[in-house]
Amino acid sequence: MSNKVIHAIYNDDDVLMDAVKQTRAAHHHIEEIYTPFPVHGLDKAMGLAPTRIAICAFIYGLIGLSIYTALMNYIMIQDWPQDIGGKPSFSYIDNMPAFVPIMFEGTVFFAAHLMVITFYMRSKLWPFKQAENPDVRTTDDHFLMEVGIHGNEEELVSFFTNTGAVEVKVVEKH
Amino acid sequence: MYTFSSKLKTFSFVLMILGAIGIGIGFMAAPKTIEDVEKLLADSHHDHEAAHVEKVAPHAEDAHVVADTVKAAVAHVADSTHAEAHTTTVDSTAHAVDTAAVVAVAEAPAHADNHDAHTKADAHSHDDHKAHLEHVLHQLQNKPWAALYVACIFFMLISVGVLAFYAIQYAAQAGWSPILFRVMEGITAYLLPGSIIFFVLLVAAGMHWNHLFVWMDPEVVNPESVKFDKLIFLKKGWLSVGRFLGTAAIILIVWNYVRFKFVKNSIAQDSAEDNAPYKRNFKLAAFFLVFFIVSESIMSWDWIMSVDPHWYSTLFGWYVFASFFVSGITVIAMITLYLKSKGYLEHVNTSHIHDLAKFMFGISIFWTYLWFSQFMLIWYSNIPEEVTYFVTRIEHYKLPFFGMLALNFIFPLLILINTDFKRLTWIVVMAGIVILFGHYIDFFNMIMPATVGDQWFIGIPEIGALMFFLGLFIFVVFTALTKAPLVPKGNPLIEESKHFHY
């Protein structure tokens, strides 16, 4: 069983969007799309499941908030209470306004950093990773749509030529 | 073209009539003499013994000169009692605070005595009692005025907030929003009647028909008088009735003029050959936004902050702005959804609603940021003349003061953080009602503590005033919406706005 795919290359994001809609309407399976920049609405046009990273970010934020609350409680209330500006540190709730900026920063720090790390892990990105894009031009100004071939090679080639692709290639995928 | 449904019109009239009755009852029910007050207080004293002690703090305000010092002393005493409870843990700290408390009490010995006398059951002298009654009388007489004032300024500033949002859309040449311009123009129509009524209220204060602004009393800047207040005396260059009304008139006239020109150009653009009216509005928006941010600051000092003439906060203008800006955006979203539910505005889609909801969410967070920035610095530095502002609110307004944080911050944060929720009508409307109520409470908290003290209550005068201005608002806004087509078809960005999807 050969593992052939079509590489249809476009040089404009609007043309790509229309092509994606046509491809979906014709029930061809889009494996992947490589773009030089994020194209608005492409995920919806491709029919990808909505991202769940926002849920992760919310949970990470709560974790950050809890950690920094515990941290400030330990540092400022339990371990070494101090009297700052006539406000002795005897109870967390009475001194909370002073800790709010730290709690806020902790929330943002955890949400942002863990969200980025999660995104990298989900996208299988790490340092020294070999690039996956099949054509170097997708990092410059070209858009590439990869579509699986299931014994309908000629039909697909003519289909994609008609969608405005500047180049249609049949590639053996490993 | 929109037609004002008779149902909604009747509803707005019912609100206005009921509201006017409520306002009337509020004015008639206000006590006329100190005997009335004595009776009122006697009734409530029997109910809760503890309330008596609490009434002492505002009592001292009679002689506005020293009120702040006393409050600071009281606050200090409270602090030190708190610290004493922990003496076993850190001796030296408690000692330091003790000394501070002693100094503070020594600074205002008479008032500390006063405080003690009051706490001991009925040991106070006859004069004190009479002064106290007179003070409560003034607060209760202020109450219907303050209720009217809060509702009036709240609804007027909603239309000002919408005007600022509208000007930002023009200045930024935003492509998503022109489809909503007629809704915004409709809401800003309330600015004219709103500001006329508001100006009448300011004149009423200037004529001494009420005592919303203590600094307006000529006695407080008269060095011979017992009421003489040095701090107000030092500020009298700014705090004078003539300057106050003059500034108010200029600000309101410019705002109304700008609003009039905006709408005129917007209508002219519908049938214009070129984009000249649009360009005029672009320039007008740029001018207005510069004028607005300065005039908005000045108006917030004058119309809101000056009810507490001893107190000042440098970011108060921004804080007030965030409050009515988010209210204005919320009203745009709610009226848009209402019109959409009636079959108008067919080009408005969930992406437009999503954007408005994002603003509701974002400006709610912004409001909280400013609220907290103001609170934390004052709380931390604990300077008596500043901290009294929050001491009064936490002592006597605990529920509205902290409740408003839940309404204006926690609720919008949790409900509007989800992307999909921002596109659901019922979520946006529910969040909108909570935000509007929360920001009414915010304005309530700004005005009431200085004008009615611990005599506040959300009763007939407050709800009546709110209903009256809501009814008037609905009537004026929806009448204005019938005056022009709901789609500004000549706007050069209208096609982009119609096809706004993401």
From TrEMBL, chain A:
Taxonomic lineage is: Bacteria, Pseudomonadati, Bacteroidota, Flavobacteriia, Flavobacteriales
Q: Which organism is it from?
A: Flavobacterium aquaticum
Ranges annotated as spanning the membrane: 53-76, 96-120
Pfam families associated with the record: ActD
UniProt protein name: Quinol:cytochrome c oxidoreductase membrane protein
User: Please, which domain of life does this record's source organism belong to?
Assistant: Bacteria
Q: Which InterPro entries does the protein's record reference?
A: ActD
Record key words, sorted: Membrane, Transmembrane, Transmembrane helix
UniProtKB/TrEMBL annotation, chain B:
Q: Write out the entry's keywords from A to Z.
A: Membrane, Transmembrane, Transmembrane helix
Keyword Ubl conjugation carried by entry:
no
Judging by the UniProt lineage, the source's domain of life is Bacteria
TM region positions: 12-30, 146-168, 189-209, 237-258, 284-304, 316-339, 359-379, 399-417, 424-441, 456-481
Cross-referenced PANTHER family:
PTHR43044, QUINOL:CYTOCHROME C OXIDOREDUCTASE QUINONE-BINDING SUBUNIT 2
- Name of this protein: Quinol:cytochrome c oxidoreductase quinone-binding subunit 2
Organism of origin is Flavobacterium aquaticum
